[in-house]
Design goal:
The complex is a heterodimer. Chain A is α+β, with helices and mostly antiparallel strands. Chain A has 12 helices and 11 strands. Chain A has helices at residues 2-26, 32-40, 48-56, 59-101, 104-138, 154-183, 200-208, 234-237, 241-252, 356-362, 380-390, 431-459, and strands at residues 149-150, 191-195, 213-229, 232-233, 253-257, 303-307, 318-323, 329-338, 352-355, 368-375, 395-398. In chain A, helix 4 (59-101) runs parallel beside helix 6 (154-183). The relative contact order of chain A is 0.14. Chain B is built from 4 helices and 4 strands. Chain B has helices at residues 9-20, 28-35, 39-51, 79-93, and strands spanning 2-3, 26-27, 55-60, 70-75. Chain B has a 3-stranded antiparallel β-sheet. In chain B, helix 1 crosses helix 4 (79-93). The longest helix of chain B is centred in the C-terminal third of the chain and has 15 residues, at 79-93. Classes of the chains: A alpha+beta, B alpha+beta. The A-B interface holds A 31, 33-34, 36-41, 43-45, 53-61, 64, 146-152, 459-460, 467 and B 1-6, 27-29, 32, 38-44, 46-48, 51-52, 57, 62, 67-71, 82. Strand 1 (149-150) of chain A pairs antiparallel with strand 1 (2-3) of chain B, so a sheet runs across the interface.
Amino acid sequence: MRQIRALFDRMATLAALRLLAWIAQRVDPAQQLWLEALRAELAAIDGGFARLVWAVGGLRLIWFERRQHVVNATYRYGPVLLHGLEAALFVGLTWSLIQHYGTLVVLLLEMAGLDLVVVVLVLITLGHVMRRRVSTRREPRHLDPPPERRVRPLLPLVLSVLSLAPLLVLWLSAPAALNQLLAQQEGLATAGVVVRSTDHHTAEAVFDQTGSLSHSEVYLTTQVKPLAVNGVPLVQLRQSTDDLQTLVNELTGIQGYDLAGGQFPAGTGMGFAPEWGATGYSDTGGNGLPGRLLDTHDAGTFNVLIPRDGYGPFNGDTITVQSLITGQTFGLHVVGEYVPDGSATQPLFGRVLADDSVVQTLSFGHPSYAYGLHLDVNQLQMVFERLHTRVPTAQLYNFLTDPTGPDYTLFTDPDPAGGFLDSNINPPPHLGEVAIFWAELLAMIIVLNWGARTLRDHSGLWNRRKG
Amino acid sequence: MARQPNTSPQTLRVLRLLLEEPTAWHYGYEISQRTRLSSGTLYPILIRLADQGWLETRWVEPQRQGRPARHTYRLTQVGPRAAAALATRGQEEGTVRRPGAQGATG
C-alpha cells in the first residue's frame, strides 16, 4: 500500500514537473522569473499531489499574461473597429438609399446630417481638451492615492457591439419602410394603368394578386376629338401649329368621376382650394366667369373642368367634341378652370374632368379604366411585366420617373420611351417624412455612440492602464 | 464601478500577512499556506504588487545542498503604510470577510 502511494506520489511529482516545463514554453519571457519562483517552491512541498496542485497554479501565469495582451489589444483597436463598423453601416445605408431612390434629396439630407456629425465631433473634441486641462491642473493633488483600477471592462464593449445591431436593422429595413411610407401617401399614386373596358376585370385580378398594392383609385376615361369652342373651330383660335396641338392635347382626354357617388376631383395641387367654395377660382382677366368645383349637382350633366392656360377656352364656354367611336358631337360646358401644378394628389389620365356619364356617353358605353396604383416601388416593374403579359394593350405610366414633368399624366402620351419599365425609380420628394426619418437615424447613431462612450468612460475601458 | 487597487480580499490577506512581520522575508509556499491561497491566485497578486513597487523580492540560497534557490518576498519601504491603511479599511468595511478565510490571516 505504501509502495503504491509512493508510486502515485512520484507520478504526481513527475506530472507537476512536466506541467511546469510545458508552461515554461508558453509563458511570456517577462513571467519566466515568476515561473521559476513557483517551480523552486516545489522542493519545499511535501507530497506529490500537493506539488501537482501547486504546479497547476502556474497555468494562471499563461492566462494572466495572455489576458493582458487580449485586453490591451481590445483597448487599442476596439474603438477604431467600432467606429469603423458604424461608419461602414452609415455609408452602406446611405448608399443603398441613393441606389434605391436616386434623389438629390437624400444627398442633401446627408450633407445636412454630416454637418451635424461634424458639430458633434467638434463638441466632443472640445470636451476632451477641456477635460485634459482640468485633469492636468489637478494632477499634483492626485500623486498620493494609487491609480484606480477599473472593473468589468468587457461589459461596455459588448454593449457597444450590440449597439451596432439597430444600425444594421435600419440598413436592411429602411428602404422597405420608406417604400411603405410613400405607398401610403393619401392620393399619391406610384403608377398608373389604363386599360380598355373589356380588360378591366383582368387588370383588377392582377392588382388583387399584388401584395405590395396598398390601394388604388379607378377612373373612367375616354378620348375625344375637340372641334370648336363656342362654335369657333380650334384652328381659328390658335394660329401656330404648336399652340393648336397643345390645346388639342389638353382637350383630348376626359377623366370621369362618380359625382353622384361622392367621387370628386381633388382640389389640392390642382389650383383649387376649399376656401374658393362655390365661387371658384377667378383669374380670367375678364374673359370668363368665376369657376367652381364639380359637385353632386353636376352628375348627369355635361359640365366639365378644364386646365387653365390663359388663352381659352374659359369658364362659361362650350367646347364641341366628337366621339371617336360614334362620330357624334357633343357640347361640354366649362364650369371651372383648374391650374395643374405638377403636385396633384391624384392621377390625371385626362385633363378634362367630367361626370362618369359624360365619359360613358362619349365612349358609347366602352370607356377605358384608369387606375392610380399605390404600391411598393420595388414591385413596380414586376407588376408592370405581369400586367403587360395579361393585358398587352394596357397603357402603363410610372408617375415616379418625372413627377414634375408637364406631360407625365398626359393621357395621350403613354411615353414608353420615358420608361414605364425604367428601373431607375425616382419617387417624389417627401421632404418632411424623409427628413424626419434621417433625423431619427442620426439621432440614434449619436445617442448610441454617446451611450457606448459613456459606458466606456464609466468603466475605463479604453483608458485602463496595464497592471 | 471603479475600485481601488489591491483591495481584493485575496490581496488584503497577503498584505496583512506581510504586515505582521514587515521586515521578514517570506517564501511563496509559506504565504500560500498561511493565506490559504492557491499558487494560481497568489502569484498574480505577487506580480502585481511587485510591479507597483509595494513588494521587494530576492533569491535566497537553499539551506540544504541540491535544492534550488528560492524566491522570497517582503514589503518595501513604501509598502507598509499603504498596505496597513488598506488592510485596516478592508477590515472595517468587512470587504475581506469570507467564511473560512479569517483564520488564515493569522
